[in-house]
Structures are given as structure tokens and as C-alpha cells.
Amino acid sequence: MELLWKDYDPETMGYIEVWLDDTAVRATGLDEGFRAFYEYWRSEDGFVPGENFWCKVLWDCGEPFAVIALCEHEGNVTVMELVLAPEKRGRGLGTKLLQELLRNEPIPGLIIEKSEAVIFPGNKASQRAFEKAGFRYHHTHEDGDALYYVYERGSDDQV
After folding, report:
1. pLDDT digits (tens, 9 = 90+) for 19-73
2. I need a surface site. Which of 28, 49, 119, 151 has the fewest CB within 10 A?
């Protein structure tokens, strides 16, 4: 399987909104849809698409199957959202795309030395995918509503 990373564009919006079933909304908090999320961050001060904010749609065999949004601030890359098409979940594709992101650097100009992700405690599938890709649990938010995971290139415990 060779993943194709394409910039998010309105052509793919129809796919992504369909992927936001109840399971995805609970796991991501994208209650208002992906378009609202994207437009918010695209227009937020200090975020420049293609420079320190990326939204990529992943394709395999001519079909989109996932979307990932990332931002970079002070040398740290945050995985903001990751959504897979419902029929592609549970097959290891989330892990595969995270591994490719971290090791093969498919986004021109983005070299990830350190990354973090925030995952809802009930989202066991994302926790497993991020752990298999090399992220490690770091801490739980004081309110208990979020788990923080960290990846550091070259860390002895990375897979």
C-alpha cells in the first residue's frame, strides 16, 4: 500500500463529512463538522496553511480514506485531528499513516522531531494507533477529559 498525501480541498469535503459518523464525532469532538474545524484554524492568527498548519487527505488506490490536520509551534508538531472512513477503521491504517508521517516525512518541509496528540480517554482505537506508531502516554489533563501523548524522534522506547 502506497499512501498519497494530498492537500485538503473542497472536492474532498463531501467524503470527510460522511466519515463523521457518531463514532468519529465522539472520538474527535468535531460536532460542527470538519469544514468548521478547518475554517477556524485556517483563519486563526499565527496559522498559515502549508507553512505551520497542514490538512492532508490520504488516498489509497484512487480513493480517499483519511484526513489529518497538524500544526507546528516552537518546533513541536501537534496532531490536531485524525479521521478515517468508517469502513477503513480497525485495519491498522491509522497507525500506518502516523508511521509514514513520522518516519518518511511526506509533507515537504516538515521534519518531525517531536510531536504530541490529545486523545479522549474513551477513544481506545486512537490510543492504540498512536502507541503503535511510536507515541507514548505522557499525562492526563487535570479534568480527566483528555490524554496527552508524545512522540520524540530517537527516543529509546520508540517502535
Report:
1. 998 888 888 878 888 888 988 988 888 899 999 999 999 998 889 999 999 999 8
2. 49
Q: Which residues pair with 54 in a beta bridge?
A: 70
| Predicted local distance difference test score (pLDDT) of residue 159 | 47
Q: Read off φ and ψ for residue 152, nearest 5 degrees.
A: -130, 120
List CB contacts of 108: < 8 A, sequence separation 6 or more.
none
Q: How far apart are CA 66 and CA 15, in angstroms?
A: 9
Q: How many CB atoms lie within 10 A of CB 132?
A: 15
The model's pLDDT over 102-122, given as tens digits with 9 standing for 90+, comes to: 988 899 888 899 999 999 998
The whole-angstrom separation of Cα 57 and Cα 67 is 4
Identity of the amino acid at 145: D
Q: Which long-range contacts (C-beta less than 8 Å, at least 24 apart) are formed by 136-145?
A: 145/120, 145/121
Please give the backbone phi and psi of residue 72, each rounded to the nearest 5 degrees, phi first: -125, 135
**Stated pTM of the model:** 0.89
Helix residue spans in the chain (DSSP H): 10-19, 22-28, 34-43, 93-104, 124-133
Instruction: Identify the residue whose cell numbers are 529509546.
Output: 156
Q: Return the closest-CA partner of residue 114 out of 159, 149, 69.
A: 149
